[in-house]
Known about the structure:
single chain, alpha+beta, Murine Class I Major Histocompatibility Complex, H2-DB, Chain A, domain 1, Immunoglobulin-like, 2 domains, eight-stranded antiparallel β-sheet, binds 2-acetamido-2-deoxy-beta-D-glucopyranose, MHC_class-I_related
Amino acid sequence: MGCLLFLLLWALLQAWGGAEVPQRLFPLRCLQISSFANSSWTRTDGLAWLGELQTLRWRDGSDTIRPLKPWSRGTFSDRELKTLQQLFRVYRDRFTWDVKEFAKMLHLAYPIEVQVSAGCEVDPGNASNNFFHVAFQGRHILSFQGSSWEPAQEAPDMANSVIRVLNQKQGTKETVHWLLNDICPQFVSGLLESGKAELEKQVKPKAWLSRGPSPGRGRLLLVCHVSGFYPKPVWVMWMRGEQEQRGTQQGDVLPNADETWYLRATLEVAAGEAAGLACQVKHSSLEGQDIILYWGGSHAFVSLIFFVVLACLMFLFALIIGVTFRFKRQPSYQGIL
Length: 337
Ligand SMILES: *[C@@H]1O[C@H](CO)[C@@H](O)[C@H](O)[C@H]1NC(C)=O
Ligand SMILES: *[C@@H]1O[C@H](CO)[C@@H](O)[C@H](O)[C@H]1NC(C)=O
């Protein structure tokens, strides 16, 4: 009995938890891509996103990080931004130099590709977490954890040699720690303020159906396209009545050029079973008014038009016959009078 009560309570708590609206977070993600064709030819590019929106770009060779949004500078003063810019320029030069030194020391073969993904996230209670990951030749090798560098899981041996050297540079570690724990959360808080309107925008999806390439004799590939929505989370499913069709296959959510998203969901069925299927779309911008598109809906519409035209024609035909009949009768009618 006690167990049953406990289960009931547990189920209630689960339902309670499930009803909570998840808080949307906007992590700042900075991506650095450094390519070393040989010991003399290198380039480094930088990009930054807040949530789904690209906010900054730093092209190779350029002295300044370019804001891509009117609110990309957050609430930092020009002086603060200038100091940071200076710091990143020094970082870029030191980074390039360090990688070449490591290549010499560890006899690494060119071309070399190094990627850095770093940033932070601030939750509504102002708590923040951060990350700094480094990949070598496309493989995650080390991260900054707490206040020092640590190898990634299953990192190659060379990662340990690199980390031994990096962990001796106390000044660099303190700067990275400061950037990740103080500067990044402050910058993100400012961005959340200055970019609020655009970050919280809602753009409704458009949806349409098409027929995909035939998967085989007597079979159909139904395609449901959903495009132009923002933010990214979306739910698209092929349905028969209330029944979700488990065969529904979703593609990747792909970016449109206007900072909205595109997704397609396909379902393979026997040709005879397509009628009555519908594609259903749920998205925050629709405020509960789901989009539902029926397969063959356009055919039903065409038949409706056909019937309307037919009815009009019949009416016209009846009218003509009636008029002709009246004209024929009229003389005799007048004749009687
Ligand atoms: C280094 O790579 C660049 C770009 O691929 C190439 O143009 C250049 O000739 C190379 N230099 C040397 C010294 O190999
Ligand atoms: C979070 O920090 C901002 C400024 O940094 C402040 O305005 C806001 O009141 C803080 N929020 C909470 C919940 O502490």
